[in-house]
């Protein structure tokens, strides 16, 4: 409903009031809910693997061997810049999702 009102462009005063009430209700609801954790790096990779019903062998094209995939997923190795770039292409996401939201990268 909020999107429909916003898409209308010009709103009557009643519609503006209604939009404000809806916005306040949504905000209040979101404040009471469990926050979505900020996952990134290996935890994000694990989630993407699970969500896409993949196996470690499905990522060999990126990591070269299953043992490297296993080492990364088990914290024995870290993701490299090349891994992150290839994972982003593979999963059709930005490389930025593999880093904490508040990190500064140059």
UniProtKB/TrEMBL annotation:
CDD domains: HTH_XRE (cd00093). GO terms for molecular function: core promoter sequence-specific DNA binding. InterPro entries: Antitox_HigA, Cro/C1-type_HTH, Lambda_DNA-bd_dom_sf. One of its GO terms (biological process) is regulation of DNA-templated transcription. Residues 45-98 form the HTH cro/C1-type domain. Gene3D superfamilies: lambda repressor-like DNA-binding domains. It comes from the Bacteria. This is HTH cro/C1-type domain-containing protein.
